[in-house]
Amino acid sequence: xxxxxxxxxxxxxxxxxxxxxxxxxxxxxxxxxxxxxxxxxxxxxxxxxxxxxxxxxxxxxxxxxxxxxxxxxxxxxxxxxxxxxxxxxxxxxxxxxxxxxxxxxxxxxxxxxxxxxxxxxxxxxxxxxxxxxxxxxxxxxxxxxxxxxxxxxxxxxxxxxxxxxxxxxxxxxxxxxxxxxxxxxxxxxxxxxxxxxxxxxxxxxxxxxxxxxxxxxxxxxxxxxxxxxxxxxxxxxxxxxxxxxxxxxxxxxxxxxxxxxxxxxxxxxxxxxxxxxx
Length: 278
Fold this sequence. Notes:
With 278 residues, the protein is α+β, with helices and mostly antiparallel strands. It has helices at residues 8-20, 65-77, 137-150, 159-170, 174-186, 193-199, 216-224, 232-245, 252-256, 261-274, and strands at 4-5, 25-31, 33-34, 37-44, 50-53, 56-58, 81-95, 98-109, 123-126, 200-204, 210-214. The chain folds into two domains: 4-150, Nucleoside Triphosphate Pyrophosphohydrolase (Alpha-Beta Complex); 159-274, no CATH class. Helix content is 41%, strand content 24%. A hairpin with a 5-residue loop joins strand 10 (200-204) and strand 11. The two termini are 22 Å apart. The model has no long low-confidence stretch (mean pLDDT 89).
């Protein structure tokens, strides 16, 4: 979906549709952006790890979704909301056998950096094209929509827009999605203009949205010809991604050796994705 303008009618419909589906535990979350970054807050999982998510919390009985978001941002994160402009979508999570539906909105704040002075809150300003490893697919999808909503009209495609378009084009095809996500999570290639300009094909869809696809064959041919200078890690990741997206063979003995722990995790996740296992 595309970001939708927040109206009283929309807010009413969101709540009534959730209740009609038997979901009465409602929550809200905010997509707060600063330049080309988005605010994520960390929550300890209890197993010495941290789950990153958008700032948010539960709506109280009698509150509208937007008034709940105003309260939560002010009380829990020290942020004063100036505008809640767009609705980005929702996602459901199960907690203690109950379904909680979280509605996500874009929020403008008087001073987004005020959260840095809110000592109780672990947070980071994340690059939308390279979210933390613990980020869920829902978070990635909503982050892309948030950056789309924040972009001025006519803005040329940036990394986050390419990321969103690449994810959309590969959605539903396991191997293509795995290859695309591996390239995105590695991060390096999408930051290189000599790669994105030559090997990512962009266009405009029927609804005016940006479309993008990787020309895997051309990229890997150029790499093997020695015309695409890169590190050993970059070459390995591109080769592995291309082998998932196409029939290009890859020698695992050469590709895997030398990858650091983070990139090995990205490769393992890509293999799981290609097999249809999240």
